[in-house]
Design a protein that fits this description.
Layout: H1 2-19, H2 26-46, H3 50-65, H4 74-81, H5 84-92, E1 115-116, E2 129-138, E3 148-152, E4 173-177, E5 183-189, E6 194-195, H6 201-208, E7 214-215, E8 218-224, E9 231-237, E10 256-257, E11 261-262, H7 267-272, E12 278-282, E13 285-287
Helix pairs in contact: 1-2
Bound molecules: benzoic acid (BEZ) and fe (iii) ion.
Amino acid sequence: MTTNRNEAERALTERVVASFAGTPDQRLRTLMQSLVRHIHEFVREVELTEAEWMAAIRFLTATGKMCDDVVRQEFILLSDTLGVSMLVDAINHRFATGATDTTVFGPFYMSSMPDRAYGENMAATPGTPALVHGRVLSTDGEPVTDAVLDVWQTADNGMYSGQDTAQPHGNLRGRYHTRSDGSYAIRTIVPVSYPIPTDGPVGRMLEATARHPWRPAHLHFMIDAPGYSTLVTHIFDEDDPYLNSDAVFGVKPSLMVSFPERSPDDALAGSFGYDGPFREARYDFILDRR
Ligand code: BEZ
Ligand code: FE
């Protein structure tokens, strides 16, 4: 009897898979048939109850309702916290080219942020002053002179401008441009660790599974230059306590930097207008030719 039931269940899976056999787009056919096989296998493996099925429907409905067109994308957050975003990243950057490692884009990028001069301060809110600087180079070591570095980080309260409407427009965001030697310089504050948003279904999932929502301190970069592939990455503070338990699994060792303290007597202080102690992080980004 049980065997007959199992056979009927397997036959159902095969009927659904076969229903996609006529999909004209070959890639879409592969995606749909594989998706059906994996979802059916999951349901079989855990012997999903009807109540659990309904809970999943409610969870996905709530996830969709939490999305808006500007700053909140709960489905990306779900993909990030399930490690899917980083798996897609890994599969699509499998072969080492010498370029800087990539990581998650995250949901808090905003386009059309202010263009910033070399060394301009992008922090309008308080924090520990920091200089983040270095060069943008090609994989063969040539300076990339006309790169745009779109940068974003949270304020000391752990929130991004846009997400936190009390912050001034463009706070801790900006588009920096490299100079002729490929150099860039950003006056900012030392990034802080912060929790991803927990007021939606993803937050409830983290709580129910006893996972924390924290991300280690980082700055986001999206770097574009003519003739090069766009680089989406972060730099992480190498002293952060959450480096080994990032809620979205985005840390790669090559992206960690130190923020040593510099005194106001340091030559850099004069060049960048610091009149007190500040932290310095140096990082060179390497772009892949397209
Ligand atoms: C972020 O770093 O901004 C981020 C990334 C993934 C999920 C939530 C936030
Ligand atoms: Fe972030």
